[in-house]
Specification:
Helix content is 52%, strand content 14%. By secondary structure, it is of the alpha/beta class. It folds into 3 domains: 190 residues, Spore Coat Polysaccharide Biosynthesis Protein SpsA, Chain A (Alpha-Beta Complex); 102 residues, Alpha Horseshoe (Serine Threonine Protein Phosphatase 5, Tetratricopeptide repeat), CATH 1.25.40; 60 residues, no CATH class. The strands form 2 sheets. Strands 1, 2, 3, 4, 5, 6, 9, 10 and 11 form a 9-stranded mixed beta sheet that branches. α8 runs antiparallel to α9 and α15 runs antiparallel to α16. The chain is globular. The relative contact order is 0.06. The C terminus is likely disordered.
Length: 450
Protein backbone atom coordinates (compact mmCIF):
# COMPACT_ATOMS: atom_id res chain seq x y z
CA UNK A 1 0.00 0.00 0.00
CA UNK A 2 1.43 3.44 -0.94
CA UNK A 3 2.61 5.57 1.97
CA UNK A 4 1.89 9.25 2.66
CA UNK A 5 3.95 12.04 4.27
CA UNK A 6 2.86 15.40 5.62
CA UNK A 7 5.29 18.17 4.66
CA UNK A 8 4.98 21.65 6.21
CA UNK A 9 6.75 24.94 6.76
CA UNK A 10 5.90 26.80 9.96
CA UNK A 11 6.80 29.82 12.04
CA UNK A 12 5.32 30.71 15.44
CA UNK A 13 2.47 28.26 14.92
CA UNK A 14 2.27 26.75 18.40
CA UNK A 15 -1.38 27.80 18.77
CA UNK A 16 -2.61 26.17 15.53
CA UNK A 17 -0.21 23.29 15.05
CA UNK A 18 -1.74 20.79 17.53
CA UNK A 19 -5.11 20.73 15.76
CA UNK A 20 -3.46 20.55 12.34
CA UNK A 21 -1.30 17.58 13.30
CA UNK A 22 -4.19 15.89 15.11
CA UNK A 23 -6.17 16.00 11.87
CA UNK A 24 -3.62 13.75 10.09
CA UNK A 25 -3.13 11.29 12.94
CA UNK A 26 -3.51 7.75 11.60
CA UNK A 27 -3.58 9.04 8.01
CA UNK A 28 0.07 9.88 7.28
CA UNK A 29 3.09 7.67 7.76
CA UNK A 30 5.59 10.44 8.43
CA UNK A 31 5.56 14.15 9.28
CA UNK A 32 8.31 16.57 8.33
CA UNK A 33 8.08 20.09 9.70
CA UNK A 34 10.48 22.79 8.52
CA UNK A 35 10.67 25.65 11.02
CA UNK A 36 11.74 29.03 9.63
CA UNK A 37 12.62 30.79 12.88
CA UNK A 38 9.92 30.30 15.50
CA UNK A 39 10.30 32.07 18.84
CA UNK A 40 7.37 30.29 20.51
CA UNK A 41 6.83 26.60 21.34
CA UNK A 42 6.29 25.49 17.73
CA UNK A 43 9.29 23.17 17.58
CA UNK A 44 8.42 21.53 20.90
CA UNK A 45 4.81 21.00 19.85
CA UNK A 46 5.87 19.42 16.56
CA UNK A 47 8.40 17.07 18.16
CA UNK A 48 5.93 15.95 20.81
CA UNK A 49 3.66 14.64 18.02
CA UNK A 50 6.47 12.60 16.50
CA UNK A 51 7.31 14.97 13.67
CA UNK A 52 10.80 15.24 12.26
CA UNK A 53 11.70 18.92 12.67
CA UNK A 54 14.34 20.75 10.68
CA UNK A 55 15.39 24.39 10.95
CA UNK A 56 15.61 26.56 7.84
CA UNK A 57 16.66 30.17 7.33
CA UNK A 58 13.83 32.24 5.90
CA UNK A 59 14.88 33.73 2.54
CA UNK A 60 11.65 35.51 1.48
CA UNK A 61 10.79 32.60 -0.81
CA UNK A 62 7.96 30.24 0.12
CA UNK A 63 8.76 27.75 -2.63
CA UNK A 64 12.39 27.46 -1.60
CA UNK A 65 11.28 26.83 1.98
CA UNK A 66 8.69 24.21 0.98
CA UNK A 67 11.06 22.36 -1.32
CA UNK A 68 13.65 21.81 1.44
CA UNK A 69 11.57 19.34 3.50
CA UNK A 70 10.40 17.61 0.31
CA UNK A 71 13.95 16.32 -0.17
CA UNK A 72 13.65 14.52 3.19
CA UNK A 73 10.40 12.70 2.45
CA UNK A 74 10.66 8.92 2.11
CA UNK A 75 6.95 8.16 1.61
CA UNK A 76 5.42 7.57 -1.83
CA UNK A 77 3.09 10.57 -1.70
CA UNK A 78 3.14 14.03 -0.10
CA UNK A 79 0.37 16.05 1.54
CA UNK A 80 1.07 19.76 2.02
CA UNK A 81 -0.70 21.72 4.79
CA UNK A 82 -0.27 25.00 6.63
CA UNK A 83 -0.58 25.17 10.40
CA UNK A 84 -3.97 26.91 10.25
CA UNK A 85 -5.40 24.12 8.06
CA UNK A 86 -7.03 20.82 8.99
CA UNK A 87 -7.46 17.67 6.94
CA UNK A 88 -11.11 16.67 6.69
CA UNK A 89 -12.08 13.71 8.93
CA UNK A 90 -13.34 11.82 5.88
CA UNK A 91 -9.90 11.78 4.25
CA UNK A 92 -8.96 8.34 5.57
CA UNK A 93 -11.80 6.77 3.59
CA UNK A 94 -10.82 8.25 0.22
CA UNK A 95 -7.02 8.46 0.34
CA UNK A 96 -6.23 4.77 -0.35
CA UNK A 97 -7.92 4.85 -3.75
CA UNK A 98 -6.27 8.18 -4.64
CA UNK A 99 -2.78 6.98 -3.74
CA UNK A 100 -3.25 3.70 -5.60
CA UNK A 101 -3.71 5.33 -9.00
CA UNK A 102 -0.74 4.82 -11.32
CA UNK A 103 -1.80 7.34 -13.96
CA UNK A 104 -1.91 10.43 -11.70
CA UNK A 105 0.95 12.40 -10.16
CA UNK A 106 -0.94 15.18 -8.44
CA UNK A 107 -4.41 16.04 -7.19
CA UNK A 108 -6.31 19.28 -6.92
CA UNK A 109 -7.84 19.38 -3.46
CA UNK A 110 -10.70 21.60 -2.31
CA UNK A 111 -9.60 24.12 0.29
CA UNK A 112 -12.55 25.49 2.26
CA UNK A 113 -11.70 28.97 3.52
CA UNK A 114 -13.96 29.95 6.41
CA UNK A 115 -14.77 33.67 6.55
CA UNK A 116 -16.60 35.85 9.08
CA UNK A 117 -19.26 37.34 6.75
CA UNK A 118 -21.30 36.49 3.67
CA UNK A 119 -19.99 39.65 2.02
CA UNK A 120 -16.52 38.11 1.62
CA UNK A 121 -15.23 37.39 -1.88
CA UNK A 122 -12.11 35.52 -2.92
CA UNK A 123 -10.85 36.21 -6.41
CA UNK A 124 -13.98 35.76 -8.53
CA UNK A 125 -15.87 33.67 -5.99
CA UNK A 126 -18.49 34.83 -3.52
CA UNK A 127 -18.92 33.43 -0.03
CA UNK A 128 -21.80 31.07 0.65
CA UNK A 129 -23.60 30.52 3.93
CA UNK A 130 -21.80 28.00 6.09
CA UNK A 131 -23.61 24.67 6.06
CA UNK A 132 -20.44 22.68 6.70
CA UNK A 133 -20.65 19.57 8.84
CA UNK A 134 -17.11 20.24 10.07
CA UNK A 135 -17.73 20.93 13.77
CA UNK A 136 -14.75 23.25 14.52
CA UNK A 137 -15.99 25.67 11.84
CA UNK A 138 -19.68 25.81 12.70
CA UNK A 139 -19.28 29.27 14.21
CA UNK A 140 -18.14 30.72 10.85
CA UNK A 141 -20.79 32.67 8.95
CA UNK A 142 -19.64 31.58 5.50
CA UNK A 143 -16.92 30.02 3.41
CA UNK A 144 -15.29 30.28 -0.01
CA UNK A 145 -13.85 27.20 -1.71
CA UNK A 146 -10.84 27.12 -4.00
CA UNK A 147 -8.60 24.35 -5.32
CA UNK A 148 -4.87 23.72 -5.27
CA UNK A 149 -2.47 20.83 -5.82
CA UNK A 150 -1.86 19.75 -2.23
CA UNK A 151 -1.53 15.98 -2.74
CA UNK A 152 1.21 14.80 -5.08
CA UNK A 153 3.63 11.97 -5.76
CA UNK A 154 7.12 12.15 -4.26
CA UNK A 155 9.34 12.80 -7.25
CA UNK A 156 12.45 15.01 -7.70
CA UNK A 157 10.74 16.58 -10.72
CA UNK A 158 7.76 17.76 -8.67
CA UNK A 159 8.66 20.91 -6.77
CA UNK A 160 7.00 24.13 -5.67
CA UNK A 161 7.48 27.28 -7.75
CA UNK A 162 6.68 30.93 -7.05
CA UNK A 163 7.96 33.12 -4.21
CA UNK A 164 4.37 33.31 -2.88
CA UNK A 165 1.08 31.59 -3.81
CA UNK A 166 3.39 28.69 -4.55
CA UNK A 167 2.20 25.51 -6.23
CA UNK A 168 3.55 22.22 -7.57
CA UNK A 169 1.04 22.33 -10.41
CA UNK A 170 3.37 23.96 -12.91
CA UNK A 171 6.15 21.42 -12.33
CA UNK A 172 3.76 18.48 -12.74
CA UNK A 173 2.46 19.83 -16.04
CA UNK A 174 5.95 20.79 -17.25
CA UNK A 175 6.97 17.12 -17.26
CA UNK A 176 3.71 16.05 -18.94
CA UNK A 177 2.30 14.35 -15.86
CA UNK A 178 -1.39 14.19 -15.01
CA UNK A 179 -3.28 16.24 -12.41
CA UNK A 180 -6.68 14.94 -11.33
CA UNK A 181 -9.35 16.25 -8.97
CA UNK A 182 -9.64 14.58 -5.57
CA UNK A 183 -12.79 14.25 -3.48
CA UNK A 184 -10.73 15.51 -0.58
CA UNK A 185 -11.11 18.64 1.54
CA UNK A 186 -8.81 20.82 3.62
CA UNK A 187 -10.39 23.23 6.11
CA UNK A 188 -8.64 26.61 6.34
CA UNK A 189 -9.31 28.47 9.59
CA UNK A 190 -6.84 31.34 9.20
CA UNK A 191 -9.31 33.97 8.02
CA UNK A 192 -11.19 33.70 11.31
CA UNK A 193 -8.13 34.55 13.36
CA UNK A 194 -6.83 37.70 14.99
CA UNK A 195 -7.42 40.72 12.67
CA UNK A 196 -4.05 42.27 13.48
CA UNK A 197 -2.21 39.05 12.68
CA UNK A 198 -4.24 38.71 9.49
CA UNK A 199 -3.32 42.28 8.46
CA UNK A 200 0.35 41.59 9.11
CA UNK A 201 0.25 38.51 6.91
CA UNK A 202 -1.52 40.40 4.13
CA UNK A 203 1.26 42.99 3.95
CA UNK A 204 3.92 40.29 4.15
CA UNK A 205 2.42 38.28 1.28
CA UNK A 206 1.87 41.43 -0.78
CA UNK A 207 5.55 42.31 -0.54
CA UNK A 208 6.50 38.77 -1.60
CA UNK A 209 4.00 39.03 -4.46
CA UNK A 210 5.55 42.25 -5.72
CA UNK A 211 8.99 40.63 -5.63
CA UNK A 212 7.62 37.67 -7.55
CA UNK A 213 6.10 39.95 -10.23
CA UNK A 214 9.40 41.82 -10.56
CA UNK A 215 11.30 38.56 -11.00
CA UNK A 216 8.73 37.12 -13.41
CA UNK A 217 7.61 40.15 -15.48
CA UNK A 218 6.10 37.98 -18.23
CA UNK A 219 4.12 35.81 -15.82
CA UNK A 220 0.49 36.93 -16.02
CA UNK A 221 -0.42 35.15 -12.81
CA UNK A 222 2.19 36.99 -10.76
CA UNK A 223 0.76 40.40 -11.73
CA UNK A 224 -2.78 39.13 -11.23
CA UNK A 225 -2.03 37.93 -7.68
CA UNK A 226 -0.62 41.34 -6.76
CA UNK A 227 -3.76 42.98 -8.12
CA UNK A 228 -6.04 40.71 -6.12
CA UNK A 229 -4.17 41.40 -2.89
CA UNK A 230 -4.26 45.16 -3.44
CA UNK A 231 -7.95 45.11 -4.33
CA UNK A 232 -9.39 42.64 -1.84
CA UNK A 233 -7.16 43.26 1.15
CA UNK A 234 -6.14 46.91 0.93
CA UNK A 235 -8.87 48.44 -1.24
CA UNK A 236 -6.22 50.18 -3.36
CA UNK A 237 -8.24 50.36 -6.58
CA UNK A 238 -5.76 52.41 -8.64
CA UNK A 239 -2.67 50.33 -7.93
CA UNK A 240 -4.69 47.14 -8.33
CA UNK A 241 -5.95 48.37 -11.70
CA UNK A 242 -2.37 48.86 -12.88
CA UNK A 243 -1.45 45.30 -11.84
CA UNK A 244 -4.47 43.78 -13.62
CA UNK A 245 -3.80 45.83 -16.74
CA UNK A 246 -0.22 44.53 -16.74
CA UNK A 247 -1.55 40.96 -16.55
CA UNK A 248 -3.73 41.71 -19.57
CA UNK A 249 -0.76 43.14 -21.46
CA UNK A 250 1.13 39.89 -20.86
CA UNK A 251 -1.88 37.83 -21.98
CA UNK A 252 -4.65 39.75 -23.80
CA UNK A 253 -6.85 36.62 -23.57
CA UNK A 254 -6.75 36.54 -19.76
CA UNK A 255 -10.49 36.86 -19.19
CA UNK A 256 -10.35 36.80 -15.39
CA UNK A 257 -7.88 39.70 -15.36
CA UNK A 258 -10.12 41.72 -17.71
CA UNK A 259 -12.97 41.12 -15.30
CA UNK A 260 -10.94 42.55 -12.43
CA UNK A 261 -9.89 45.50 -14.58
CA UNK A 262 -13.61 46.20 -14.81
CA UNK A 263 -14.11 45.76 -11.05
CA UNK A 264 -11.42 48.36 -10.35
CA UNK A 265 -12.88 50.77 -12.92
CA UNK A 266 -16.33 50.30 -11.37
CA UNK A 267 -15.01 51.09 -7.88
CA UNK A 268 -13.32 54.18 -9.33
CA UNK A 269 -16.79 55.13 -10.67
CA UNK A 270 -15.78 54.82 -14.31
CA UNK A 271 -18.82 52.71 -15.12
CA UNK A 272 -18.68 52.94 -18.92
CA UNK A 273 -15.06 51.76 -18.97
CA UNK A 274 -16.04 48.99 -16.58
CA UNK A 275 -18.75 47.76 -18.93
CA UNK A 276 -16.24 47.66 -21.79
CA UNK A 277 -13.83 45.59 -19.67
CA UNK A 278 -16.59 43.19 -18.61
CA UNK A 279 -17.49 42.65 -22.26
CA UNK A 280 -13.80 42.04 -23.04
CA UNK A 281 -13.75 39.41 -20.28
CA UNK A 282 -16.77 37.69 -21.81
CA UNK A 283 -15.15 37.72 -25.24
CA UNK A 284 -12.24 35.81 -23.66
CA UNK A 285 -14.62 33.15 -22.36
CA UNK A 286 -15.04 34.40 -18.81
CA UNK A 287 -18.67 33.90 -17.78
CA UNK A 288 -19.59 33.98 -14.09
CA UNK A 289 -22.56 35.11 -12.00
CA UNK A 290 -20.42 37.85 -10.46
CA UNK A 291 -19.51 39.27 -13.88
CA UNK A 292 -23.19 39.58 -14.87
CA UNK A 293 -23.97 41.05 -11.46
CA UNK A 294 -21.22 43.66 -11.86
CA UNK A 295 -22.51 44.50 -15.33
CA UNK A 296 -25.91 45.04 -13.75
CA UNK A 297 -24.41 47.28 -11.06
CA UNK A 298 -22.68 49.41 -13.70
CA UNK A 299 -25.83 49.70 -15.79
CA UNK A 300 -27.85 50.61 -12.69
CA UNK A 301 -25.40 53.35 -11.71
CA UNK A 302 -25.63 54.75 -15.24
CA UNK A 303 -29.43 54.88 -14.92
CA UNK A 304 -29.96 52.09 -17.44
CA UNK A 305 -32.46 50.21 -15.31
CA UNK A 306 -33.86 48.00 -18.08
CA UNK A 307 -30.33 46.88 -19.01
CA UNK A 308 -29.56 46.31 -15.32
CA UNK A 309 -32.62 44.05 -15.00
CA UNK A 310 -31.41 41.97 -17.96
CA UNK A 311 -27.93 41.61 -16.42
CA UNK A 312 -29.25 40.57 -13.02
CA UNK A 313 -31.55 38.00 -14.64
CA UNK A 314 -28.57 36.59 -16.51
CA UNK A 315 -26.63 36.41 -13.26
CA UNK A 316 -29.47 34.51 -11.59
CA UNK A 317 -29.48 31.95 -14.38
CA UNK A 318 -25.84 31.27 -13.53
CA UNK A 319 -26.39 31.33 -9.75
CA UNK A 320 -30.02 30.44 -8.93
CA UNK A 321 -31.43 31.34 -5.52
CA UNK A 322 -28.80 34.02 -4.84
CA UNK A 323 -30.65 36.39 -2.52
CA UNK A 324 -28.30 39.35 -3.00
CA UNK A 325 -28.83 39.30 -6.76
CA UNK A 326 -32.59 38.86 -6.30
CA UNK A 327 -32.53 41.97 -4.13
CA UNK A 328 -30.63 44.00 -6.73
CA UNK A 329 -33.00 42.78 -9.44
CA UNK A 330 -35.93 43.88 -7.30
CA UNK A 331 -34.45 47.36 -6.85
CA UNK A 332 -33.78 47.67 -10.60
CA UNK A 333 -37.38 46.61 -11.33
CA UNK A 334 -38.55 49.16 -8.77
CA UNK A 335 -36.56 51.94 -10.49
CA UNK A 336 -37.76 50.74 -13.88
CA UNK A 337 -41.35 51.45 -12.76
CA UNK A 338 -42.51 48.02 -11.60
CA UNK A 339 -42.74 49.03 -7.97
CA UNK A 340 -44.92 46.22 -6.63
CA UNK A 341 -42.89 43.49 -8.34
CA UNK A 342 -39.65 45.05 -7.16
CA UNK A 343 -40.80 45.36 -3.55
CA UNK A 344 -42.06 41.80 -3.54
CA UNK A 345 -38.74 40.50 -4.82
CA UNK A 346 -36.72 42.52 -2.29
CA UNK A 347 -38.92 41.28 0.57
CA UNK A 348 -38.47 37.68 -0.56
CA UNK A 349 -34.69 38.18 -0.63
CA UNK A 350 -34.71 39.38 2.99
CA UNK A 351 -36.80 36.37 4.02
CA UNK A 352 -34.45 33.97 2.20
CA UNK A 353 -31.25 35.40 3.67
CA UNK A 354 -32.09 37.25 6.89
CA UNK A 355 -28.45 37.52 7.93
CA UNK A 356 -27.45 39.67 4.94
CA UNK A 357 -27.44 43.32 6.03
CA UNK A 358 -27.43 44.91 2.57
CA UNK A 359 -30.76 43.32 1.65
CA UNK A 360 -32.54 45.28 4.36
CA UNK A 361 -30.98 48.56 3.23
CA UNK A 362 -32.34 48.34 -0.31
CA UNK A 363 -35.81 47.51 0.90
CA UNK A 364 -35.81 50.33 3.47
CA UNK A 365 -34.79 52.85 0.80
CA UNK A 366 -37.55 51.68 -1.56
CA UNK A 367 -40.27 51.71 1.13
CA UNK A 368 -39.19 55.14 2.34
CA UNK A 369 -39.17 56.46 -1.24
CA UNK A 370 -42.85 55.48 -1.50
CA UNK A 371 -43.54 57.15 1.88
CA UNK A 372 -44.27 53.73 3.38
CA UNK A 373 -42.66 54.83 6.64
CA UNK A 374 -44.19 52.20 8.96
CA UNK A 375 -43.02 49.43 6.62
CA UNK A 376 -39.56 51.02 6.28
CA UNK A 377 -39.25 51.31 10.06
CA UNK A 378 -40.32 47.69 10.56
CA UNK A 379 -37.69 46.46 8.09
CA UNK A 380 -34.99 48.64 9.68
CA UNK A 381 -35.77 47.17 13.10
CA UNK A 382 -35.82 43.64 11.70
CA UNK A 383 -32.29 44.30 10.54
CA UNK A 384 -31.26 45.26 14.08
CA UNK A 385 -32.54 41.92 15.33
CA UNK A 386 -31.10 39.81 12.51
CA UNK A 387 -27.54 41.08 12.02
CA UNK A 388 -24.72 42.39 14.17
CA UNK A 389 -25.60 46.10 14.14
CA UNK A 390 -23.41 49.17 13.92
CA UNK A 391 -24.13 52.51 15.58
CA UNK A 392 -25.37 54.08 12.36
CA UNK A 393 -27.97 51.33 11.95
CA UNK A 394 -29.62 52.42 15.20
CA UNK A 395 -29.50 56.03 14.00
CA UNK A 396 -31.27 55.21 10.73
CA UNK A 397 -33.93 53.13 12.43
CA UNK A 398 -34.59 55.92 14.95
CA UNK A 399 -34.73 58.52 12.17
CA UNK A 400 -37.60 56.64 10.53
CA UNK A 401 -39.54 56.65 13.80
CA UNK A 402 -38.74 60.33 14.14
CA UNK A 403 -40.20 61.10 10.72
CA UNK A 404 -43.47 59.61 11.99
CA UNK A 405 -43.12 61.67 15.20
CA UNK A 406 -42.88 58.47 17.22
CA UNK A 407 -40.36 59.98 19.60
CA UNK A 408 -40.60 57.46 22.42
CA UNK A 409 -39.89 54.61 19.98
CA UNK A 410 -37.01 56.60 18.47
CA UNK A 411 -35.54 57.26 21.91
CA UNK A 412 -35.80 53.59 22.86
CA UNK A 413 -33.91 52.60 19.71
CA UNK A 414 -31.15 55.09 20.46
CA UNK A 415 -30.91 53.89 24.07
CA UNK A 416 -30.48 50.34 22.81
CA UNK A 417 -27.69 51.58 20.58
CA UNK A 418 -26.00 53.47 23.43
CA UNK A 419 -26.09 50.31 25.55
CA UNK A 420 -23.99 48.57 22.88
CA UNK A 421 -21.92 51.59 21.78
CA UNK A 422 -21.62 53.75 24.93
CA UNK A 423 -18.85 55.89 23.43
CA UNK A 424 -20.71 56.75 20.21
CA UNK A 425 -20.96 60.55 20.05
CA UNK A 426 -23.53 60.39 17.25
CA UNK A 427 -25.85 58.19 19.30
CA UNK A 428 -25.42 60.27 22.46
CA UNK A 429 -26.04 63.51 20.55
CA UNK A 430 -29.14 62.06 18.90
CA UNK A 431 -30.51 60.88 22.25
CA UNK A 432 -29.96 64.35 23.72
CA UNK A 433 -31.85 65.96 20.84
CA UNK A 434 -34.73 63.50 20.92
CA UNK A 435 -35.19 64.09 24.63
CA UNK A 436 -35.76 67.83 23.92
CA UNK A 437 -38.48 67.21 21.30
CA UNK A 438 -41.89 68.62 22.37
CA UNK A 439 -44.29 65.89 23.44
CA UNK A 440 -47.55 65.96 25.44
CA UNK A 441 -45.51 65.33 28.60
CA UNK A 442 -42.95 68.01 27.74
CA UNK A 443 -44.81 70.76 25.80
CA UNK A 444 -42.51 73.67 26.65
CA UNK A 445 -39.54 72.48 24.60
CA UNK A 446 -39.48 74.67 21.47
CA UNK A 447 -37.28 72.63 19.10
CA UNK A 448 -37.85 69.49 16.99
CA UNK A 449 -35.23 67.47 15.20
CA UNK A 450 -35.02 64.69 12.59
Amino acid sequence: MPTLALSMIVKNAARDLPECLASVRGVVNEIIVADTGSTDETVTVARETGARVVSLPWENDSSKARNSPLAMVTADWVLSLDADERLDPGASAVLPALLARKDVDGYQVTIRNYVPTLAHKMWNRSAVANDSAYAPARHAAAYVDHENERLFRRDPAIRFSGRVHETVGWSILSVQRKIATANLMIHHMGMLGDPEERARKILFYLELGKQKAAEMPENRQAHFEVGVSLLENLGDNREALAAFERACEVDPRFGLAWFFVGVCQFRLENHRAALASFRRAESCGHFTPWLSEMEGDAQYNLGNFEAAVACYRRSLKRAPAKASIESKLGLAEFREGRERAGLRRMRQAVDEEPGNAELYDRLVVAEAFLKHLPEAAEIAERKLAAVTPRAEVFLRAAALRGKMEQWSEAAELIRRGVAIFPDSESLLNMLSKIETVPTPSNPAVPERVI
